[in-house]
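help with this.
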Amino acid sequence: MNMRVLITGGLGYVGGRIAQHLAADSSLSLRLTSRRAGAPQPSWLGNGEIVPWDIAQNGNDICASIDAVVHLAALNEIDCAQDACAALDVNGMGTLRLLQAAQAAGVRRFIYLSTAHVYGAPLVGSISEQTVPRPVHPYAITHKVAEDFVLAARDQGKVEGIVLRLSNGFGAPIAAEVNRWTLLVNDLCRQAVSTGKLVLRSNGLQQRDFITLQDAARCVAHFAVLPKADCGDGLFNLGGECSRSIYEMTQLVAARCQIVLGFAPSIDRVEPQLGELSQALDYSIAKLKTTGFSLQSRFEDEIDATLSLCQLAFGEN
């Protein structure tokens, strides 16, 4: 019997890549949500289904006959900054409404994709699940609220709640229409195709932990079927074990442009001051690795796919 998985935000940026990865597993039957009524079904979804749903609604209907929920539907960081009250209702209370609906429907597992930014801003130093969260942005604050609801339900034995604190996931969206082109790597790839150069608004010394969306999707697939006894307390950092400066990532994009697009774009940035250094970042996934998960994807492959999509969507015809 197939395992039935609901993915909220399953046509979005991270959710779309997770759905696409899970759809390749014939033992899983997928139900994706979209705020758009009549959203076209991608060819890779196979026998899966898309249902219209807004997180402001309860989730009673969409949770029926579901074994596991993967919850990603949320306001992005830009919308959260503009309206913190709406962010709390959507990201916090919306998660609670869905969680309660999942419990009422007898859903066994509830996987919530949170953010590394619950630890604060900027992310610096050594960060593990033992680090005390100090979120400052409405996006991070409301994700922390949602986390608490999920983990409380887990501790009360109401559902197998799992929280994954995702660092800087990057990679090609499932379609160019998925508008997350303001994210660093995506923005750089689009700049390369559209302008032939890469422009940073800072000196690029800031460190970030990067993880490919392919590995993020693999991790969700891992937890969808991981035995309950191996899920520990349900809270895990999800990162790429690779902290790089923004400038180093920009240099990598430029190098891949030479291979994929046939030219190496120039890089413009604010020049650092003499002796200026960045603060180191170690986003630990040691706890995650104890569950048997390991990173496998190459940064180069994810960047190449993003450049190729940009060439098709934004290049000259």
